Structures are given as C-alpha cells and as structure tokens.
Amino acid sequence: MPRTDLLLALDYGGTKLSAALTGIGERAWRALERVASPPQHDAQYDQTTMCALAHKLLDAHTPRAIGVSFGGPVDAARGRVILSHHVPGWEDTPLRDQLQQEFGAPVSVDNDANVAALGEYRFGVGLTESLHPERSAAESKEPSLLYVTVSTGVGSGIVIDGKIYNGADAMAGEIGHTICDPRGPECICGRRGCVEAMACGPVIARAARERLLAEPDAVTKLRELETRGTLTAADVARAADEGDELARAVMDDAARALGFGIGTAITLINPARVVIGGGVSKSGERWWQIVRASARSNTLPQMRVAIVPAALGDDAPLWGAIALAEDLIARG
Residues 5-34: pLDDT tens digits? Predict the structure, then answer.
C-alpha cells in the first residue's frame, strides 16, 4: 500500500545496522530500529538483516524515497558500493539497484561519513542561528563543513556550498588513510601510520592491551577487564576520564594522531567548521582538548576553524540519508 509521505533511512555500519522512518518535512522519527552485527558478519547477512528491518518499519507501505548511508567507499553517481574495509563481500555491489528492486522506490546511496556530513550540515551544527541570530535561516548555514567520524574506523565527509564533495574517484574524505606517522603501525589499507591505524576504537583497545602486557606492574582499572577478555575502547575512555594513567596515555596518543590528521585536512580544505562524531568522540573533555590542540598545531594560525561535537550523535548518518531522500524528491 503506497504512502507517498514516507521517507526511509538506512545506515549500514561496521558493527550495527540501523533503519529509520519519517515523513516528508518532519524532523522526528516515526520509527527507528538498530541491530548489532555478530562477529564475522558479511555482506549477505547485512543485506538480509537490513531489508528485514526496513520491511518491519514500513509495515507493507511503500516509501516515497530511500536514503542510504554505507560504511565504506561508494560510487554515489552509480549507487554502487566500492568495498567495505571491515565487512567482506561488499566489493562492487549495486546497492542502489538492489534496494530499488526490493522496495519499489528511488534510492540514493553514499559513504557514511559523507551522509553524516550532509545530515549535520542540513539539520545539525551546520546551522548557526545561535551564533548569528541576525541571519536568516538560509544565511545561517556555514559555507563549508568537514565531518569526521571516529568509531570502528576513521572517515570524513566534506560539504561545500550545501553539497557533498565526492572527488574524482568517489574517494574524497578518506582522512583515516592519511599518514600521521610513516613509521607507525600497519593499517588495513596496507600502508603504515594512517590516522585510522592510530586513532579508531579497535586500535585504542588493542593499544591498551599491548601496554598492559608491556607494563605488568602498572596499577590500572583495565587489567581486570583484559583478564576477562572484555576490554573495549569505551572502557579505556571511561578509565581515562576517571584518571587512570595507563588509560590516559593510550587515549592521549589516539587523540594526538586524530588531531594531526584533522589539522592536515583543515590546511587543505579550510572549512568553516569541523564536526566530530562516532563512538570515540564521546571520550571526554581531555580527549577533546588534545584533539583540538593537535589539530591547531598542524595547521596555519590564520585558519580559525571551530572543532565541535556532532549535534545529531549516532543519528547523523540517518538524518543525512533523509537529506538524500529529500533531494531525490526535489529533483523529481
């Protein structure tokens, strides 16, 4: 049964899948579902699970349009997934065509960081009425925005004059694979010292485990968690926030690496605002201070960009997907 006012948002993440439903022009969810992915999940699992989630939300209705955020490089013009760095089986997948056939509605697909950047630009901290109350709603949008997400990996999206910048090969915004230490650890991309290899969540947890082995006499809250085999980046961040010295050393290293990469991006793009989201961005004020200081030390003093937390939180990719869906409708 058609419902021409419904917009469907899908977010394919490295560790979870999310689907949400809203109406045209609405700014609250009518329904939202998230499912954590099991270990060693693959593209087939992701697609089967996501379609089941979406059908559950739609309840036999047909959406007007669908926006999709995907956790990996995407050829947005063709609606094809290039690959996933974290989930096998997604190589050269025609995701747009698959979803259009499944749901009978137009679909727009882009990389998760790009989509989150658009969501923040359109509905989140890209709006600056509070800083410039004299401006109209149209004037209150910053002309450019760099969004950085730090979770399973590190990615970024660039919005210039209200549009996602994809780059010549649909690979713009791969900040996680810029180099901050040529002698650093090996990255999943095959090079050494990438920002992602030094700052993302799994790396933080691994660095903590390595320090626990290297410093057997260190007094730390993390040792019991590691003994139980449950140590995560969130545990390290929480311990650091509570003053644990070993945890602070790990988080400080990750924050400096991320800040260095952001500084490089600022120098190249000179955005009006940098927005940081993803699970690791919830690591506390000390982490934020080091990220900002490291970024500013690696850019020109004339570039006075604000570095701020995402306003939309984990929903940024979903709201960005809604922006994609709305743009599909606007283009007719």
Answer: 999 999 999 889 999 999 999 999 999 999
Is the pLDDT at 183 greater than 90, yes or no?
yes
User: What architecture (CATH level 2) is domain 125-199+250-310?
Assistant: 2-Layer Sandwich (3.30)
Give the separation between CA 279 and CA 283, rounded to whole angstroms. 8
Q: What is the pTM of this model?
A: 0.86
Measured CA to CA, the distance from residue 131 to residue 322 in angstroms comes to 25
Chain-centroid distance of CA 233 in Å reads 16
Contact status, residue 22 vs residue 9, Cβ threshold 8 Å: yes
User: Which class for 32: exposed (0-12), middle (13-18), buried (19 or more C-beta within 10 A)?
Assistant: middle
Domain with CATH 3.30.420.40 in the chain: 6-110, 125-199+250-310
CA distances from 135 to 71, 121, 141, 205, 273 (A): 35, 16, 9, 44, 17
56, 103, 123, 165, 299 from 66: Cα distances, Å = 15, 9, 17, 20, 39
CATH number for the domain whose boundaries are 6-110: 3.30.420.40
- Comparing C-alpha atoms, which of 14, 12, 157 is closest to residue 98? 12
